[in-house]
Each structure stands twice: as C-alpha cells, then as structure tokens.
C-alpha cells in the first residue's frame, strides 16, 4: 500500500490520487486505504494513506510482526533444512550451499518487492534488464553470505577465521548488500523505485533504515549464542571447542584440560572451556561459521585427541542439528530484515497529486 502526503493545496480533509488513466481524483480523508471508482474509466483506484511518522512506525512494526506468523516460521525451518542438507553432501556441500544462498537471496529480494504492492505480480520479471540486475545483485549478496565458508584457511571445510580486516569487510557487506537489494528490488504501486527514488526513501527514514541494517549483525550474534546454549546443554560444547580449531593441543595444556571423554553428558562446561572459547573467538573463530563449514568434510572421531562417545555418523548428525539451529536463527533474521525493508518501501510513493 502506498503512503503519500495529503493534498496540501486543498483542504486537509481530502486526499488526491491519480488514476492509471491519468484522471485526478479526490476522496474524503476517512476513505484512506479504501477504493473509489474513477469517473473517467470506472476503474477501482485505492485511496492513498497520508504520510506520517506514526504510519511509518506502524508499517515497520507490522513487518516485524508478520515474520512471527506460523507460515513464515515454517518457511524459515524448511529453508534452514534445505541449506543444512546440501551442506552435508561430502566434498561439494559448500558449493551447493552457495547456490542455495543465491536462490535464497533472490527470495529475499522478492519479499522486499512484493511488500510494495497489494498482490503478487511477476510481470516486470519479463524484462531482461530487470532479470540481469536482480539476479546479479542477489548473486553478490548470496556470495557475501557464503564468503566465510569459501575463504577458510586451508580450503573448503576448514574452520573459517576472521581477521580484523575480514571482519570489517564482512560488517560493511552486511550493511551495503541489503541496501543494494532494497534499491534493486523495492517497488510500490507505481512500479520499481529505482536507485534514485529508493535512495531518497532511505534518507527520508534514517532511523528505520539504520535499525533494518543492524538486523543481520544482531542475527549472527543471536545464532552464536543459540549454538553456545544448545551445545552446552547437550554437553558437546567442550568437545567442539577443542575439536574444531587448530592448535588445540597447545591450548589444552595451557588450560590444563585433560584428554577425557563422554562429552555428550548434559551438563554446563566449566570455566576453562568458556575461557578457551573466548580466546579462540578473539582469534577470529566462531561456531556460527565453523559448524556449517565442517559438514561436508570427512571427520574421524576415533583419531581425535579428545575421546567422544559417538561414531562419525552420529557426530555428523549432531553437527547437522546444531547447524540447523544456527541456520534457522540466521534465516529468521534475514526474513525479518527483508520484510522490514519491504515495509520501508511502502513509504515511498510521492505521486504528483492533482487537486
């Protein structure tokens, strides 16, 4: 639904709207959001809702509430399951995961685009220029999300490690690419916003835009905390902290961690493992990137320096389960961001109103 300024050249009790046939119409302010019939072509035309800060706040919060609906939560779970499943394919899981992320990025853009209209419309996908632009930006967005998995030291499947520069680049990408997706996909009832009109909307609503941009970094932190909670509750946190990252023998000696087993007991890890985790996190290692990267690489639990009361298939199932949790959290926040940006796009309409 488009949101416009009321007609200031006439009484504030009336709103003006232009029919697609070109005829200017007026309607009482209380009919905002309803449809009226054009007296020229008899087409039903929706009366715009006047712009206001209160309306902007309500539209954005509606986008937040929508992602909590059952249909969206089911979609989040299914999307996470598909991504986790392909990552488990040995040898080629990460390249296939990149493809899934690119397709997911196109879906992310579609959520933004469809929020700007009151019906599902795919007509402007018929233009080659639109297809190339949208798929191109979505591919870059998908590759940016997969970058930690693609550039792990030692090749695919090894634990990714963020350097200070790498972290800053990721943070910039987490802010820039969603904006690029918005400028590429956003539209209202008039059609695509384009980079100029879309940019004007983002500048006009800086608080809503800034909050939308923080969603992905918050989602990554939430996913990491969820992994710490789940793995600690199941007793796997100590083993994963030792098994995932290189140089654990050295750190185990420093923290006086013995080589003992049965890490699958449901008990909270002691402070040694929490300190070790924080030290590895400071070095650039995080579970939210390491777990997905580990799924497609063959593991040998029996050869580990720290014993575990699981065989390799069971260990893979545990890691897949944890990755599913992480993916659900991340996809939830991505869906939230796309709906939020889509809600912002509905604030864009600035039609030339005729009194």
Description:
The protein has 355 residues and is mainly alpha-helical. The protein has 2 domains: 48 residues, no CATH class; 303 residues, no CATH class. Helix content is 58%, strand content 7%. The chain is built from 13 helices and 8 strands. The protein has a two-stranded parallel ribbon. Helix 3 packs across helix 5, helix 4 packs antiparallel against helix 5 and helix 12 packs across helix 13. It is elongated. The relative contact order is 0.16. The N terminus and C terminus are likely disordered.
SSE layout and pairings?
Layout: E1 3-4, E2 14-18, E3 24-28, E4 35-37, E5 44-46, E6 49-50, H1 53-66, H2 70-87, H3 93-115, H4 128-150, H5 164-185, E7 187-188, E8 191-192, H6 194-204, H7 206-213, H8 215-233, H9 237-243, H10 248-254, H11 271-282, H12 287-294, H13 312-345
Parallel strand pairs: 1-6
Antiparallel strand pairs: 2-3, 4-5, 7-8
Helix pairs in contact: 1-13, 2-3, 2-13, 3-4, 3-5, 3-13, 4-5, 5-6, 7-13, 8-13, 12-13
């Amino acid at each position: 639904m488009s949101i416009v300024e009321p007609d200031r050249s006439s009484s504030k009790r009336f709103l003006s709207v232009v029919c697609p046939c070109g005829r200017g119409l007026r309607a009482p302010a209380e009919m905002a959001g309803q449809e009226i019939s054009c007296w020229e072509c008899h087409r039903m035309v929706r009366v715009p809702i006047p712009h206001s800060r209160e309306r902007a706040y309500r539209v954005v919060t509606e986008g937040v509430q929508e992602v909590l609906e059952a249909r969206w939560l089911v979609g989040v779970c299914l999307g996470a399951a598909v991504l986790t499943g392909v990552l488990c394919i040995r040898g080629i899981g990460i390249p296939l995961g990149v493809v899934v992320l690119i397709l997911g990025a196109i879906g992310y853009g579609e959520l933004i685009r469809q929020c700007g209209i009151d019906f599902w419309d795919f007509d402007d996908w018929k233009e080659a220029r639109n297809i190339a632009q949208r798929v191109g930006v979505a591919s870059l967005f998908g590759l940016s999300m997969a970058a930690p998995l693609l550039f792990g030291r030692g090749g695919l499947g090894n634990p990714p490690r963020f350097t200070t520069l790498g972290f800053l680049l990721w943070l910039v990408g987490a802010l820039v690419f969603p904006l690029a997706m918005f400028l590429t996909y956003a539209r209202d009832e008039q059609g695509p916003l384009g980079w100029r009109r879309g940019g004007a909307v983002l500048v006009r609503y800086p608080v809503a835009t800034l909050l939308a941009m923080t969603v992905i970094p918050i989602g990554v932190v939430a996913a990491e905390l969820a992994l710490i909670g789940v793995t600690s509750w199941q007793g796997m946190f100590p083993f994963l902290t030792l098994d995932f990252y290189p140089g654990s023998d050295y750190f185990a000696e420093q923290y006086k961690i013995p080589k003992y087993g049965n890490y699958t007991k449901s008990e909270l890890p002691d402070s040694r493992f929490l300190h070790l985790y924080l030290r590895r996190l400071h070095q650039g290692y995080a579970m939210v990137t390491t777990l997905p990267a580990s799924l497609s690489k063959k593991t040998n639990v029996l050869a580990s320096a720290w014993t575990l009361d699981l065989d390799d298939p069971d260990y893979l199932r545990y890691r897949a389960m944890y990755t599913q949790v992480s993916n659900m959290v991340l996809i939830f926040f991505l869906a939230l961001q796309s709906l939020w940006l889509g809600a912002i796009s509905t604030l864009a309409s600035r039609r030339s109103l005729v009194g």
